[in-house]
Amino acid sequence: MSRTVLVTGASGALGPPLLAELLRSDGTARVVVLLRAGPRWDRRVHELRAQVSRSGRLVCVAGDVVRSDLGLGGSMRDRLLQEVDVVIHAAANTRFSTPAGDLHDVNVEGTRHVLAFARGCPRLEQFLFVSTTCVAGTRIGVIAERLEDQPVAFVNPYERSKWEAERLAAAADMPVRIARLSTCLGDERTGHVHRFGAIHQALRWVIRGLVPMVPAVEGSRVDLIATGVAARWIARAAECPVHALEVCHVAAGDRAIPFRDLVDCAVAHLRETVPGWRSGQIEPPVIVDADTFRMFERSVAQSGDPLFAHVLESAGSFFPALLYPKVYQTVQAEALWGGPLPLSDWRSTVRRVIDFGCSRHWRRPRHAELIHV
Amino acid sequence: MTSNPDDVGLSGVAGILPERQHDLAELAAAGLLSSSPQALSAFGFERAHVCDAGYPPAEMALDAARAAMSDAGLQPHEVDVLVWASARAESHLWSGETRADAGEVMEGFRYSSAWLQNALDLHNAEVMAVAQQGCATMFAALRVARAILLAEPDRRHALCVGVDVLPPGAPREILYNVVSDAACAVVVSRGCAAEKWLGYRQLSRGYYWDPAACGPEIVAAYFPTAKVVIDQLLTEHGLRPCDIDAVVATGVNRSSWDILMRLVGIPEDRLFRGLPTFGHTMTSDSFLYLEELRRLGQIRRGSRLLLFTYGFGSSWCGLLLEH
User: Fold this and answer.
1) Is the CB of A301 inside 8 Å of chain B's CB atoms?
2) What are the pLDDT digits (tens) for B52-67?
3) B205 contacts on A by Cβ (under 8 Å)
4) Across chain B, how many H-helices and E-strands are there?
5) What is the rounded CA–CA span in Å between residue A69 and residue A347?
6) In this structure, how many other beta carbons lie within 10 angstroms of the beta carbon of residue A54?
7) Strand partners, B195
8) Cβ contact B224:A286 at 8 Å
């Protein structure tokens, strides 16, 4: 047990399960969590510790990646610089609808600041940047585990900000591993979701019967992984040395789910469990081409209906990707893992996540739930 | 043209719009719209036809019925069944002057259908009414009329009549549709090859029973449920979308028809919207346009027509006819 791991973004969707996995590892002496300073800092620390561990191996420090010094006091910064072996930078603004400038501040400049910190760590073994498969933007086909030289067109500013952040990390003179995560659906055993993302918002509105149509093309697939798979892969990667820049897709890859199968699975479950759906009154959304969906969007815009505008903005963060079918290569991710990624039975995970979301009205859980370490 | 004695078709169709009209700016100035005139204009609306005291709803219904009977070549004594069909509950009561001596209870029995039978001298007709289907009420009336004609061979002609007007000063916009007052009448006849009845499909979803409470859900459910109804109707009759020669639109939001045509895969140039932009008239839209389509004579015999509508309640209805 030797490593000290600094983690940013621990209060995000991936954070608690990742911390649990890191603390499970014998190779990790201490996990230092950089939690955004602010009036609710004590509460966030309390929640995180209640969820993950009250062990002294989990240390929370107040800071903020948008500040050039990470918001750390001088002595704390100096101490951490000397102690940290691995940096896992997972902090990001993942709300796709956030203005581009705000996304840039957190996702690009935040990464720049964490890289600057890591550069000062004499013991640094690895800078593990948690990115997203979304950086492939509108590319279609097989997406390789490498940096793309040419910028692509992006579906939203979030994708661009993460792509730019990847470029920064890749250019840093240090051992960098980029883990591009696919969509993390939730806990495979309980369906628990720490923070609802774009796919959950889309599900929420579909379940309420407020999404009449979804844009997709023939062969659209949805690359989903259980959150635990991503957490376990990153925890293992933190222990594996990296010598040259490495890009890995922590994704289902060629096992991604055909979109129609996902819809059929969700609808079958809703028809067993949710009033309205159970009685067959609510019809599932129609899968339409891009032009038809644009006509619908235009119609909503012309009407000025605030609810549908909100639904489209919220669920629309997830939909556009369906128009750009792609398969993420997972060769390097599997090589690190030592075989195919242990994907869960996606059907049961989908059902559990739906049950969990419905039980919480698709709001963030108010009370922390324990993750066993 | 020959017809099979068991064929049922629409032998007469007529629609009536009151002459008084208000454009969107006037409606907005009177506070009768909830959306901007620009938004409604983008949806294809220009004006609303509004009933006034000089041409009351009962007279509109009477004129529509006379015109449909004339179109069918029917004399009053030939009408076997009269089906009154209006979306609004108030429209089922005669709209003329109240009697000072009637009292509130007796006023509630002054039925539009009975008044119309008397006014048209339909002395051989059995009278009934269909209600609670919203804008799909006339579709339901046609279905009831056809069922009676098929079940009772000595009945040959059923006259379906409806009128719907909004109260004076009522908002003229419902779920992004500008609403006009109108009446329509359709004669359903056995042994009729005109607008021959090929099939009907209706899905009723009581989950959406309260439009005041679930307006957004209804708007969202409109497209997927409409597609299911139309797909099922075509499948039941072994038809492909391209086998439909004309889709007779309703007067609702134009963009919704553009989208629906794409959803069901029927070529967009087969949508018949007619020339006048009268907006949405609740029960009469499809028949105002069908009347115009027949009058224009631009569609060949044997063409397959699809009529589709949605009615609060909620019901989605598709009707397949052969011209």
Assistant:
1) no
2) 989 999 999 999 999 9
3) 281
4) 9, 14
5) 44
6) 10
7) none
8) yes
